[in-house]
Design a protein that fits this description.
Layout (H helix, E strand, L loop, with lengths): L1 E2 H6 L6 H9 L3 E3 L2 E2 L6 E2 L6 E3 L2 E2 L7 E6 L21 H4 L4 E2 L8 E7 L2 H8 L7 E8 L4 H9 L13 E6 L3 E8 L6 H8 L4 E9 L2 E2 L9 E3 L2 H13 L1
The structure holds uracil.
């Protein structure tokens, strides 16, 4: 059993303050009866809770897709500057969300945040080989030899051996653009791989993680909750491995 205000605020749609007001105004029903107080307890798994006549979809865990802008650290706290948590409203900040993996401060695009530790951990596990797709802009002309070197598995300057990776060249010239597909996540990996080929990255954006694609409707800096289908797909991905 949990407090009603906590259950309702956990959806991220209303703050605790707003939930209190909704309850006082009689707009929250539990199994058909108006809730008496924010402290009232209910079983979130079985109670039918409606807010303004709409049935509440309770989720034990929160999963958020963020379109990360440059300038934010993929951390929950950091003295060195704003973190991706600063892009979320206070009621979500209080839910104990953390980023699922890291994007560099200057990297943009798809970042998941959750408070479901186990699934997040499994998705990141090197044994899972979850695909990550990045769009990279580099200085220099990307060639078929670069793609072949990625496919063969690059060895970085410090001896780090990379798994075979995809390099799909979208445009080549004095500046080139390519899609890079990795099945692992070493520190600064895309930048280090392209630097190893003598083509330093000038811009990097993540577009996909497993079967989750960055929602084109999300502006930079915006977030949305994962849909039930997206979460189910993530869980299936995890089960299949
Ligand atoms: N590879 C990088 O170099 N940076 C990122 O942020 C992600 C992958």
């Amino acid at each position: 059993m949990e407090r009603l205000d906590k259950i309702i605020a956990s959806t991220g749609r209303w703050s605790r303050r707003e939930v209190k007001d909704l309850i006082r105004q009689g707009r929250v029903l539990v199994d058909g009866y108006p809730a008496a107080a924010p402290e009232e307890k209910a079983d979130p798994e079985t109670a039918r809770i409606t807010v303004n006549g709409e049935t509440l979809e309770y989720r034990r865990y929160t999963w958020v897709m963020l379109n990360k802008p440059a300038g934010y650290l993929s951390a929950t706290e950091d003295g060195r500057g704003p973190t991706v948590l600063d892009l979320l409203p206070p009621e979500l900040q209080r839910r104990g969300l953390f980023p699922v993996g890291r994007l560099d401060k200057d990297t943009e695009g798809l970042l998941l945040l959750t408070n479901e530790g186990r699934l997040a951990h499994d998705l990141l596990s090197p044994r899972r080989h979850v695909e990550k797709v990045y769009r990279a802009r580099v200085t220099g002309c990307l060639t078929a030899e670069d793609a072949a070197a990625f496919a063969a598995g690059l060895v970085l300057g410090d001896g780090t051996v990379c798994r075979p990776a995809g390099l799909e060249i979208l445009s080549a010239g004095a500046e080139s653009v390519a899609l890079v597909t990795l099945r692992e996540g070493k520190f600064h990996q895309v930048k280090r791989m392209l630097a190893q080929r003598g083509k330093p990255v000038t811009y990097l954006e993540r577009l996909r993680m497993g079967n989750l694609t960055l929602d084109p409707a999300l502006e930079r800096g915006d977030f949305r909750f994962l849909t039930e289908q997206e979460l189910e797909a993530l869980r299936n991905l995890e089960r299949l491995r």
